[in-house]
Every structure is written in structure tokens, then in C-alpha cells.
Amino acid sequence: MAGSRHILLIIGGGIAAYKSLELIRRLRETGAKVTPVLTRAGAEFVTPLAVSALAGVKVYSDLFDLTDEAEMGHIELSRAADLIVVAPATADLMAKMAAGLAGDLASTLLLATDKRVLVAPAMNVRMWDHPANQRNVAQLKSDGVLFVGPNEGEMACGEFGPGRMSEPAEIVAAVEAALGQGPLAGRHVVVTSGPTHEPIDPVRYIANRSSGAQGTAMAVALRDLGARVTFVTGPAVVPPPQGVEVVRVETAAQMLAAVQAAMPADAAVFAAAVADWRVEGASDRKIKKDGGKLPTLNFTENPDILATVSTKGPARPSLVVGFAAETNDVEANATAKRARKGCDWIVANDVSYGSGVMGGTDNTVTLITDAGAEHWPRMGKTAVATELARRIAAALG
Ligand code: CTP
Predict the structure, then answer these.
(1) Which of 249, 269, 276, 365 has most ligand 1 atoms within 8 Å of its beta carbon, as the pocket-test mutant?
(2) Is 73 helix (H, G, I), strand (E, B) or coil?
(3) CA 276 – ligand 1 centroid, Å
(4) I need a surface site. Which of 119, 136, 193, 374 has the fewest CB within 10 A?
(5) Is the pLDDT score of 305 beyond 50?
(6) What is the DSSP pairing of strand 267-270 with strand 245-248?
(7) In which domain, by residue range, is 240 found?
(8) How far apart are CA 354 and CA 299, in angstroms?
(9) Taking the CB of residue 227, how many other CB atoms lie within 10 A of it?
(10) Of the residues 210, 299, 304, 312, which should be mutated to test ligand 1's pocket, given the most ligand atoms within 8 Å of the CB?
(11) Separation of 151 CA from ligand 1 center, angstroms?
(12) What is the number of structural domains in the chain?
């Protein structure tokens, strides 16, 4: 918990500022002290009175006044906190941070601080995707600024995509992770993610439609609860997250070797869509057309990473979580899969055509444990991951 910690919360100008009121409440519930700073644009969305009433202290604003400077100068204000949180972090604020501008109180504090900074971006999807903003994001990440979100989804402006500010609970989890205080602090969790590519020859391969979105969301959620995460990923569409150890692999055999090399772990989460088969005797030369004669591919079965880790070796993690991609009889198939593979939990998802799960942003999950099957409502992959990570933390105790 972030108890007895001091957080300087900078509230930028965006519609998501209303969520920052809830964020203040939740941070204070963890025992943290919150000193709010409201930018001029932020004050267009939430009032200084609401912010200071929730924080229980005065709010600092852009209007630098002499009393403030006499009471606590901006340098001291930027250093007294254990962590600076910027929520919502607008494109404008991030551009100022990336450029080192200090034309107002918020940007001055961000430039003067010697503490870690966590930003929760919120903006229109086109603004987020704009090369100028992406340059600033890359610059801030390489400067060591921590990010939580943005999430993908429907935006206040009606467009869809990345740009929504993370939910207050996710920001609180990221704060705790940044302070090294989450419930998984000191725990090691291995996560597999993405598809595998099984070569036919040097230019061709067998693959599947997995984007790596669910595995990446799992790694983020576990990291945000304080876990040390080893993220073993196949060639995914979604980039791997910051703040985890990334091991890139191509094939199922490489994935198994990487997972075994990462042991011991307290928990392992197998979200990868591993190819069940590989081409036996893949050619090390490009297979050429041969006067209309068709090549024959012989398949052989890949090792089952989840079953291997669940059932073999002394280094079995105390909690092994598998996923099950099913197109029909989801609960029955997943229950049988849990028994067959020897894992503790199975997170079953319906990947039938029309479900939009494979490669999409949402998931409809059935969680199978020794207590039976739990049907979760349809939700975003991030929300699924946040809830699963919370359950994992509770199970590890
Ligand atoms: N898995 C694995 N190694 C494999 C195949 C699957 O680790 N070679 C893991 C997946 O990461 C997932 C779980 O096993 O956690 C179930 O994957 P799924 O594709 O649903 O099951 P399969 O074993 O492939 O069974 P089937 O294709 O018959 O449904």
C-alpha cells in the first residue's frame, strides 16, 4: 500500500480530470498524502474547491502567488513528494515535459523534481497517434518517466482507440508499483504472450491470429501490483510493456526453453497462443516452385509448455494459470483442459468467429478453478488482466 507516502498529483486539462477526483479519494484510502496541483487548463474541468476538499489540503495552482512561494517554494514542493503523478497528462503537458519547458507551475515542478514521475495520458486517439506525440512519449520513456495507459476504448469525443485515461484503480496500482509497494512486491511471475511462428523455410512460417494483447495486459497488471515479470513473447503485434524483462522468441521450442530458463517463479501465466504443430524438417533453403508439383508439409507436435511446467520438474510455480482458446462448449472443454494440463486455473475465452476476441480488444472469460467455473461479463482485455492479477496476488497471499 502507498501508506504514509506523499504524492504530488498534477491535474492537467482534459475531460478525464473528473476521474482525478476519484483518484485522490482512492490514493488517500491507501493512506497516502496527496498534494494537488491544478493547471490553468485543469481548472476549466474541475474546481480548485472540489480538488482541495477531497485532498484535505490546499490546492496549488498555476497562479504562482507570493504566499505560496513564501510557504513552500516550487523546488521544495517538487522534492517533498515521494512520487509525482500527472493525471490526466495531456499532449501539451507531455510535450512540455519532453522539451524541458518550465513556463508554468506544473511544468516547473516536473523539471525541478528529483523524484520519479508517473504519467496517465488522456487525449484524442489521433493526438495520441500523432508522430509528434509519439516522439514525446518515446523521449519521456527514455528519460525514465513511467506510464500507465492510455487505455483503448470509446472516447468522450466519440472516437475509438488508445487515448482514454486509465481508471483510478489502475493508476493506484501503478503508483504502488512505482513505490515498490504492491501486493506482489518481491514476487516473480513468468508470462507468455503472443503467437509463435513455426518456420516452413527461411521466408515462410505457420502462425495464428494472436496479437499478444491479453498477455501484454497481464504483464502490465502484474507489474503494476509490484511483481518482477519475465515476459516471454512470440512475434506479437502489440509492443511489449515497459518495466518488465522481455525475452523475445519465435517458435514454441524457443518459448519452452525461455520459460524454463526464467524459473523459479512464484506464478506463471500462459497467455501465448502457441502453435500446436511445427513443420517437421523445415527447409533451410527457400522452397522453390517445381513445375506445378505441390510441396508436401509434414507436421509434428510441439511441446506443451503449460503442461510441461505444470507437471514436470521440481521448480513448479505455486500457481500455474493457463488460457484456453475455445470455439464451442467453452466450459466443458476448458474444464477438461485444466485437468489434462495439470494447471491450477484456466482462463477460458470464446474465440469463435464473430466473438472478436482473437486480435480484438475485449474478452469474455470463464475462469475455471478447483472451485468450479465463474462466468465473467464481457470486458476489455485490460480489465480482465487487472482482475486476474488481483486474484493472483490474493492466491499467493
Ligand atoms: N499451450 C502451451 N504450449 C502449447 C500449446 C498450448 O503452453 N504447445 C498453452 C497456452 O498458452 C494456453 C493453454 O496451453 O495457456 C491452452 O492453449 P489452447 O490453444 O487453448 O489449447 P491446446 O493445448 O492447443 O488444445 P486444443 O488446441 O486441442 O484446444
Answers:
(1) 276
(2) coil
(3) 7
(4) 374
(5) yes
(6) unpaired
(7) 188-396
(8) 29
(9) 28
(10) 304
(11) 28
(12) 2
- For atom 19 of ligand 1, the residue with the nearest CA is 325
The residues assigned a catalytic role are 157
What's the CATH code of the domain at 109? 3.40.50.1950
Residue at 314 is within a domain: yes
**Are residues 147 and 86 in contact, defined by beta-carbon separation less than 8 angstroms?**
no
Please indicate, yes or no, if residue 183 is contained in any of the structural domains: no
**Ligand 1: residues whose CB is within 6 Å?**
192, 252, 270, 272, 274, 276, 302, 304-306, 322-325
Our CA dihedral for 368, 371, 373, 377, rounded to 10 degrees, sits at -90
- 359 C-alpha vs ligand 1 centroid, how far in Å? 17
What are the residue ranges of helices labelled H in the chain? 17-29, 48-55, 66-71, 74-80, 91-99, 105-112, 125-129, 131-142, 168-178, 213-224, 252-262, 305-311, 330-341, 381-396
C-alpha 362 to ligand 1 mean position (Å): 20
Residue 252 falls within a domain, yes or no? yes
Rounded distance between C-alpha atoms, residue 175 and residue 241, angstroms: 16
pLDDT per position as a tens digit, 48-90: 999 999 999 999 987 555 566 666 677 888 888 999 999 999 9
Q: List, for residues 345-395, the tens digit of each pLDDT value.
A: 999 988 887 777 776 778 889 999 999 999 999 998 889 999 999 999 999
Q: Which CATH number do you get for residue 290? A: 3.40.50.10300
pTM of the complete model beyond 0.90: no
Q: Which atom of ligand 1 is nearest to the CA of 321?
A: 15
Give domain status of residue 58, yes or no.
yes
One-letter amino acid of 348 = A
